[in-house]
């Protein structure tokens, strides 16, 4: 302990072992009324240590979670998403087990749930898969998603999927598997879609993407023709969230009239 700060160190294996030791266990403690109640012993350890355990247990360290078919499989994090088609997905049976941690009680759920979505990298086969996942997990969980990779296919679901993605309050990394090409008539085509667009702003989902703010890392497949998409989205997505407008509005609303003319107008608005 240094400067009244406590530091805890634990490996993932130790975290699993600790949780296993608490499995199906309970502790009986006297209640304030003198009766007996059952309490979870895990909640009696310091919250800083609990948060460390949540991160170790709930993170698929070194892997991306491939979402689809109502299950999870994983890809090696060190293999770029654009090369993962050449790699067999690894099934991950234990994931259902460690997600059971979220069902212990309301307090553990509220503490641990954000960590699962914060810590993991979610990969989607197309915009439809991303839309289904983000819709199914609900608004409370959506805002904690932080790292996403997605193939920009299935344009019929792109607008809805992108809109749900913008509800994340913590999105930091976004990888788009996308290519945009122009034909002789200067119409754009995206990936394998047959649809043509006069401008890239007409591509489903792009108007929602432009509302994203605070993304620290925007990545495109370097092997695809994405320069035009990069030029359109990167300056908008990567800029920080702006609060300057809100402050200006509040300041203007509180400003007192300085001239006789302004005072006269203010009185008229008040009905004086």
TrEMBL record:
Taxonomy, top ranks, is: Eukaryota, Fungi, Dikarya, Ascomycota, Pezizomycotina
Q: Where is this region: Disordered?
A: 253-272
Q: Which residues form the DUF7730 domain?
A: 39-153
InterPro entries listed in its UniProt record: AN11006-like (IPR038883), DUF7730 (IPR056632)
- Give the species: Aureobasidium uvarum
Per the record, the domain of life is: Eukaryota
A Pfam family in this protein?
DUF7730
Q: Where is the composition biased (Basic and acidic residues)?
A: 255-272
The protein's name: DUF7730 domain-containing protein
């Amino acid at each position: 302990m240094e400067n009244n700060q406590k530091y805890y160190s634990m490996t993932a294996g130790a975290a699993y072992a600790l949780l296993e030791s608490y499995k199906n266990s309970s502790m009986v403690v006297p209640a304030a009324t003198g009766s007996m109640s059952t309490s979870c012993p895990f909640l009696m350890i310091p919250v800083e240590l609990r948060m460390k355990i949540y991160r170790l247990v709930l993170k698929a360290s070194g892997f991306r979670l491939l979402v689809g078919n109502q299950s999870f499989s994983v890809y090696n994090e060190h293999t770029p998403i654009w090369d993962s088609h050449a790699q067999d997905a690894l099934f991950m049976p234990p994931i259902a087990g460690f997600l059971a941690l979220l069902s212990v009680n309301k307090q553990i759920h509220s503490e641990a749930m954000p960590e699962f979505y914060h810590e993991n990298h979610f990969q989607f086969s197309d915009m439809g898969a991303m839309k289904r996942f983000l819709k199914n997990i609900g608004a409370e969980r959506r805002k904690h998603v932080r790292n996403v990779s997605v193939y920009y296919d299935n344009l019929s679901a792109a607008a809805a999927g992108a809109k749900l993605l913008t509800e994340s309050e913590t999105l930091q990394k976004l990888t788009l598997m996308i290519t945009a090409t122009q034909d002789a008539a200067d119409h754009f085509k995206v990936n394998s879609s047959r649809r043509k667009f006069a401008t890239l702003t007409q591509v489903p989902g792009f108007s929602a993407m432009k509302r994203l703010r605070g993304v620290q890392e925007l990545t495109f497949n370097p092997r695809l023709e994405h320069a035009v998409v990069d030029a359109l989205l990167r300056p908008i997505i990567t800029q920080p969230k702006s609060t300057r407008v809100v402050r200006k509005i509040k300041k203007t609303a509180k400003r007192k009239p300085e001239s006789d003319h302004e005072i006269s107008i203010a009185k008229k608005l008040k009905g004086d």
